Amino acid sequence: MRTLVRTVREVRTALRLQEGGSFQSSFWRRQKPLVNPVPVTVYRPLHNDGIDRYKHHIMISRALHTPAVKDTSGDAGQGGPFVEYERRIAAGELVDGDLCQVVTLKELQRLYDELVQSADACQLDRYAASDKSGRSRWLWSRFIPQFSSSPVKGLYLYGGVGTGKTMLMDLFFDQLPSNWRKKRIHFHDFMLNVHSRLQRHKGVTDPLEVVAGEISDESVLLCLDEFMVTDVADALILNRLFRHLFSNAIILVATSNRAPDNLYEGGLQRDLFLPFIATLKDRCMVHEIGSSVDYRKMTSAEQGFYFVGEEFSGLLKQKLEQLMGEHSVHPQEVEVVMGRTLQVPLGANGCAYFPFEDLCDKPLGAADYFGLFKKIPYIGIGWRANFWTPQQDSSIPVMYENKGRLLCTAEGTPTELFDRIVSVSDAKNMAPRTSSRSRKNDDFDICVDNELAFAKDRTISRLTEINSREYLEQHAAMLTAEKQNSVEGGKEDAVQA
Predict the structure, then answer these.
(1) Which pLDDT value is given to residue 441?
(2) What is the pLDDT of residue 425?
(3) pLDDT of amino acid 24
(4) What's the rounded mean pLDDT across residues 140-155?
(5) With contact defined as beta carbons under 8 Å apart, do 125 and 83 qualify?
(6) 59-94: per-residue pLDDT in tens?
(7) pLDDT digit string (tens) for 278-307?
(8) Do 296 and 461 meet the contact criterion of CB atoms below 8 Å apart?
(9) DSSP 26-43
(10) Measured distance CA(144)–CA(225) in Å, rounded
(11) Are strands 378-381 and 95-96 parallel, antiparallel or unpaired?
(12) Hey, how many other C-beta atoms are within 10 angstroms of the C-beta on 338?
């Protein structure tokens, strides 16, 4: 104990001499914010009559699959998402279009420039931070003054489906220097990782603090795509988790279909979730992408294997058999998450076939779908007339994020499948029953649900793009790259052996 006290005194003396003043004055100098506090601002799109005064551009589906020129030098002074956007325009990779995306790109460029200027204060450089990470973090965090939060605020982007949120964030992320401590991950995957870490730290006084410490050690800049809270277990821990993360100077960039105030709307025990919304708005600038264009629907759809009509069930199985090749087809068991397994009725060669009920009518969550789609790139779903269940709000987004390939038969097109799901306001506007409209002709199976009505547009949009030529080309390129990496990895192992 005396040795520890002596060490602390020596550290304090060294700091006092280095700063040329008392330890106390040095401490308060370090606690001053580096930038003036900025109030939360919600940016809204300009009125239509102002659009003609600007040269504006569209980021259509072709841009979604054009690789960005990444900055790997570590000197990002002349780079950024807007610079890369202009490069694509000059190269003819983009066509004229959407002012809302241009305004959003300028917000991302502003954040990018601010991060570059404050890179040292934010400790973004992984190599500069590695010296400290090797010491006892517990000891140093208690005796060396630390910033309580990052000097740079994050950014929360929200808007309608297919407006380019993911593409814009990826454009921003790809331009960040390679030596920065950064991570880009889907929100569902992030929360799955958090729950897995919590399992490992059972018995600790505050496991969330430990998990937040691990995450902030790995990444200072955290980019979360598709921020959507639907699970009560996630909702109840988010406030404490992000309080710890923000206290560890994490910078959050997130995309969502929902404004912060509308997150987890109508959820169980939402009053316990509300403090997280306040924390989120305090640590992030909020920007709305006001575009009403769904760019996913501008792709060359109907190129995949989405068959309308039960008579195509045989064709679906025939296509799956071609993909499986000469491999033995048999029931499989796939480990999905935390030791749980999922039964695959028929599978081989990275392909799986499920009757609709086995995949979509069972109580599976996003974590289960993540585990399945990461291991099996081709999923075939058998016929079902009623295609919608609440679980599909997890399955389709997760398949889309993992660039999975969907083959299925259904009663109608994606739009037709969900036309009986309406919001409360839409239901009020429906024509009332009259003498000419008898009870016999009423639609008894109309589902009035605000959450499902909100989610259906997103699902229709993704189902449309999943069957587009651009998406299928990207899926094929991804599988080719994975095979090449596997072959190269096998060669390295053989050389080492």
Answers:
(1) 47
(2) 75
(3) 37
(4) 70
(5) no
(6) 333 334 444 444 444 455 568 999 888 888 788 776
(7) 999 999 999 998 766 655 555 554 556 788
(8) yes
(9) HHHHHHS-SS------EE
(10) 34
(11) unpaired
(12) 11
Residue appearing with tokens 């277990």? 233
With the CA atoms of 441, 446, 448 and 454 taken in that order, what torsion angle do they form, in degrees rounded to the nearest 10? -130
Q: Where are the beta strands (DSSP E) in 226-327?
A: 251-256, 284-289, 305-308
CA dist., res. 398 & res. 334, Å (int): 17
Residue 437 CA to residue 448 CA, distance in Å, equals 20
Tokens at residue 45, please? 């799109």
Taking alpha carbons only, the member of 414, 349, 408 closest to residue 375 is 349
What is the Cα–Cα distance from 16 to 19, expressed in whole angstroms? 5
Q: How many CB atoms lie within 10 A of CB 496?
A: 6
pLDDT at 230 over 70: yes
Q: Diameter of the chain by CA atoms?
A: 93
Output the six-digit token pair for 28.
């308060």
Average pLDDT, the chain: 75
Which pTM was predicted?
0.65
Of the candidates 256, 194, 263, 270, the one whose C-alpha atom is nearest the C-alpha of residue 226 is 256
Who contacts 400 (Cβ-Cβ below 8 Å, separation ≥6)?
462, 465, 466
DSSP letters, 372-391, are HHHH-SEEEE---SS---TT
pLDDT band of 431, cuts 50, 70, 90: low
Query: Helix, strand, or coil here: 404?
Result: coil
Report yes or no: 229 and 451 within 8 Å, Cβ to Cβ.
no
pLDDT digits (tens, 9 = 90+) for 43-58: 333 333 333 333 333 3
**So what's the pLDDT on residue 29?**
38
Q: What is the spatial distance between Cα 177 and Cα 188, in angstroms, rounded to a whole number? A: 26
Name the DSSP class of 365: -
Report residue 42's pLDDT band, with 50, 70 and 90 as the boundaries.
Answer: very low
Spell out the SS3 assignment of 184-249.
EEEHHHHHHHHHHHHHHCCCCCCHHHHHHHHHHHHCCEEEEECCCCCCHHHHHHHHHHHHHHHHCC
Segments of 290-442 assigned E as strands? 305-308, 330-337, 340-348, 351-354, 378-381, 405-410, 421-422
- In degrees and rounded to multiples of 5, residue 65 shows phi and psi of -115, 10
Q: Residue 51's pLDDT is what?
A: 32
Count of H-run helices and E-run strands, the chain:
21, 16
DSSP 46: P
What pLDDT does residue 145 have? Answer: 46
63 conformational bin, left if phi > 0, alpha if psi -120 to 50, beta if neither: alpha
What is the C-alpha to C-alpha distance for residues 354 and 373, in angstroms, rounded to an integer?
A: 13
Average pLDDT over residues 383-397: 63
Which residues, in sequence order, are CB contacts of 170 under 8 Å at separation 6+? 68, 184
